[in-house]
């Protein structure tokens, strides 16, 4: 199973925000969209960073309510790890586990073409496991 197979099912929409938006605006967006991370875009549309709910929690822990008026660019992670559509879901799961993050933007020809969350990966792995078990049960029943 490849990243493009997940995107085919879940779609390619990526929620993004500008780096000069406030943390308060980012928190509102995360809550409204019911997601855990937003990709931060530069003016030219390229990926400038990623901001997850953990970054918001960390900022509030450090600066209390003042953090909410600070720009997203101050709290985002700049060195974004991305994947491509032809990466395998197994490799992505290994990457997320090793790097300890739950979101990976997908780049196609350097353009943002989707985002995969740990929830997408787990859902896909469970579906695969169920299918494998059904196939095995079929073999056993037929034999
Ligand atoms: P998460 O587990 O995705 O909520 O993110 C945990 C931390 O990793 C936060 O500081 C995020 O900004 C950062 N992070 C999340 N996804 C990525 C990614 N693909 N590349 C680099 N850092 C990330």
Structural features, described:
The chain has one domain (3-142): CBS-domain (Roll), CATH 3.10.580.10. A 3-stranded mixed beta sheet has the order 1-2-3. Strands 4-5 form a two-stranded antiparallel ribbon. It contains 6 helices and 5 strands. It is elongated and about 65 Å long. Strand 2 and strand 3 (47-52) form a beta hairpin. The longest helix has 25 residues, at 118-142. Helix 5 (89-99) packs across helix 6. The chain is of the alpha+beta class and 143 residues long. The protein binds adenosine monophosphate. Adenosine monophosphate binds next to strand 3, helix 3 and strand 4. Adenosine monophosphate binds at residues 36-37, 50-55, 77, 80-81, 101-104.
Side-by-side strand order of the widest sheet:
1-2-3
Q: CATH fold name, please?
A: CBS-domain
The number of distinct structural domains comes to: 1
Separation of the first and last Cα atoms: 28 Å
Can you tell me the CATH architecture? Roll
Detail the topology: elements first, then pairings.
Elements: H1 3-10, E1 16-18, H2 23-33, E2 37-41, E3 47-52, H3 53-63, H4 72-75, H5 89-99, E4 103-108, E5 111-117, H6 118-142
Parallel strand pairs: 1-2
Antiparallel strand pairs: 2-3, 4-5
Helix pairs in contact: 5-6
The chain binds adenosine monophosphate.
Care to give the gist of this entry?
With 143 residues, the chain is of the alpha+beta class.
Attribute tags:
49% helix; binds adenosine monophosphate; 143 residues; CBS-domain; two-stranded antiparallel sheet; alpha+beta; 6 helices
